[in-house]
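A quick aside before the break. I want you to see a complete sequence-to-structure record at least once, exactly as it would be stored in a machine-readable document. Don't worry about memorizing anything.
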Amino acid sequence: GYIPSSNAFYPPISGYYQMNGMVSFSTMPANGGSIIIVIYKNGSEIQRGNRIPTNTTGAAVNVSGVLSLASNDKLELYLIQSCGSTAVTENTTQYGCLFNGICIRPL
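That is the input. The structure line, written in tokens, reads:
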């Protein structure tokens, strides 16, 4: 499950997991860059989500995929940006950052 102190998701059992991530922004720089959301497994990219231009107001990036995971794998959610400025994430109960997963079938 998700371990807040490490900001990572660790599968409780080996299996196929539906993983989902989302980050929404309250403020975006207007300089024409972009932001991409990515899931990393053990330090390497495993699933890339959508890309949004940074001049989009009230935007969110999303990533989703079925991943084959071992019980000792570490999953992290990253944002990759090319805007060179700060984008501010939402900080509310309904919006902000989401990272979850569910085992859909054991290995």
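Two observations worth writing down. The chain has a mean pLDDT of 87. DSSP finds no helices and nine strands in the chain. We'll return to this after the break.
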